[in-house]
Amino acid sequence: MKNPTSVEPDVVSPTDELNTGNVYPTVLTTHDINEYYDYFVGNQIPVSMGNILIPPTTYGRYYGAMAAINASTIETRNRMIKAKENYRNHEARESLEVPGFKGLNTKEMYEKGQRDPLHRNHSLYHKTHLLPYRFSMSEGDTIEGLVFAGTAHLNHGDRPDIDFFPDEKEKEQRNKILRSKLDIDGRISMSYEDVSVSDYNYCNSPEGSNFSLDDFENLASDIISENKNNDPYAYYTWLDYDAENDTAIPDRIYLRLKNLKTHKLIIDVSINNVL
Question: Is the dihedral of CA 155, 158, 160, 162 positive or negative?
Fold first, then answer.
């Protein structure tokens, strides 16, 4: 498996390479958190298509990631993954040192009082990617700052404490809901107060369940892949920590998807990092 290259040059502006896309991303790092945040809320991106941008680690915390991506890049990477030219390395992710995660991996739900190592999704906390694998081509072992301590609920929609794990049918239903909201005005904006999926009575998610990071990642991938013009997009994430939080575990994640050709903000949501 070939890994992304990581460099720390001065941040550069997009060039004519915007619509080409690198199969293996070059990883750039901003000079400080505020610089990254300016890109998160603004219109400019500092990397060429196919590459990613990571803000520096500060006080032992990770803060976000951005991928410049288009349909061609996703198609190429998905084809490589399917052909096993590139593959997920679960062992690399399991051995990864993630800020704040030590000890959390022991918080698991046990089946019949016995720990079952095969049921990894029973863990209450996951080593959670800031970018989908097909956007970064890394488990976080080759890109520092890519993986954080997220709850199973935030990461995948799982509720191990009440024995709920969304199946494929449930995931498809969630995707239909989000796509229907997108069809209304071409944009989805949700704060962490209104990302509840259990508000929709034709879903099986129990009360208190929220749309997950995985739900919005899949939606973003669909939007990019279905763009017939191969428009360039920026997919951003930003980790937020409350003032009273003195840990490396974020309180929520903000997620944005922007069409860089039209400058239209398509997805703008925040999800709490709660069980």
Answer: positive
**Largest distance between two CA atoms of the chain:** 58
**Of 218 and 141, the one with more pLDDT:** 218
pTM, full prediction = 0.87
- CA gap 30, 38 in Å, rounded: 11
C-alpha count within 13 angstroms, C-beta hemisphere, residue 49: 21
Strands across the sheet containing 64-69 = 5-6, 26-29, 52-54, 64-69, 233-240, 252-259, 264-272, 188-190
Cα separation, 43 vs 242, in Å, equals 26
114-140 exposure pattern, b = at least 16 Cβ within 10 A, e = fewer: eeeeeeeebbbbbbbbbbbbbbbbbbb
- 70 has which bridge partners? none
Q: What is the overall mean pLDDT for the chain? A: 84
